[in-house]
Amino acid sequence: MQLTDSYEPAGQDVVSEEIDGEVIIVNLKNGNYYSLTQSATVIWSRLARGETLEQIHGALCRRYLGEPGVMQQGLTDLIRALETEELIRRAAPRADGNGAPPAEAAVDGPEPYLPPLFERFTDMGDLLLLDPVHEVEDQKGWPHSKGDA
Amino acid sequence: MRHAVPLVSVVIPVHNGERYLAECIQSVLDQMHPALEIHVVDNASTDGTAEIARAFPSVVYHRLEEKGLAKALNYGIGKATGDVLAFLDADDLWTPNRLSLQLDALGREPDLDVVFGHIEQFISPELDEASKAKLAVTNARVPGLHKCAMVIRSESFRRVGPFEPTVDMGDFVDWYMRARDLGLRETMLPEVVARRRIHTSNMGHTDRAKRVEYARVLKRGLDRRRGLIGR
Predict the structure, then answer these.
(1) Any chain B CB within 8 A of the CB of A95?
(2) Which residues of B touch A45 (CB under 8 A)?
(3) Nearest to B74 by CA among B59, B87, B57
(4) Which of A33, A111, A117, B120 is the most buried (most CB within 10 A)?
(5) What is the ipTM of this complex?
(6) Are residues A126 and B219, on separate chains, in Cβ contact within 8 Å?
(7) Which residues of B145-162 are buried (b: 16+ CB within 10 A; e: fewer)?
(8) What is the pTM of this model?
(9) pLDDT digit string (tens) for B183-228?
(10) SS3 A6
């Protein structure tokens, strides 16, 4: 792993969404799901838009008060864990990795560093592994009332 | 149970399901269970769904204009009077004898709340060869953690509560997480109890926006477990 490396979510079977400061990732290949909190949410959002590890590390150093070496270790540990779970894969550097920063919660200056937290859950595996192919499609599918979430 | 032979309420939600509905209902009637109550909830169909459902004298037909799969399911559940609840999507089939297998399991173990069985998929026969070729459908039996493979005591279902009406794709994920968290006792039979039809209206569904709903449902489940939101 090099600081110039960049990664991306490992295909369309890896689905993620950030909700209320927590990133939930679902791996529809194995039925596991995951929670990312604290600085892991920053890492995931920047990784998903193609930033290199160096760029992500820079963003962590700007956002958090902490030892850069500790933050780099936290970053590489998380990347290894995400790779082990087959949630990310190496990617070619992307143009948007140097673009505008991702939307993150506004902060008033650096805040104390909170190490990336990564939790794995396996309790819904058999259910999530049932092929979602069976559900309705956009045009012919189940109707919705206006205003449905 | 209130009845010596348990009354089974079957809820079949359907939206424009004229193509497969008759076969679906027939697979329920073929169970030969003497105490069946079949509720077909027609969710704003514009095709011949109503006529097909009404052609079965033993089917109770409901028309629901308020749209949504979970709403249709909940409506049917609200009309059900049985000791036991079961479900079937309007394009799927039950296998013969599934009810007797699952009811036997419930009868043997009074503390059991839910009985699942296995599911197998099949490609709908009318698909053309080009469409079939695009499918990577396995015929393997998989554990059917799906409402169509479930038989549940009505009182147990009501402890968990209805399907979440704001959820579309992850309706059963949401419900099942709540059931697990309440400690419902379940078993999984080795037999295939339902056959899921793959056809042109569902075979291509890989829409990412809808898949994201799984993440939202799981987040809500995690927050419930953390005590951050109510059940």
Answers:
(1) no
(2) none
(3) B87
(4) A33
(5) 0.82
(6) no
(7) bbbbbbbbbbebbeebee
(8) 0.84
(9) 999 999 999 999 988 876 664 444 566 788 899 999 999 999 998 8
(10) strand
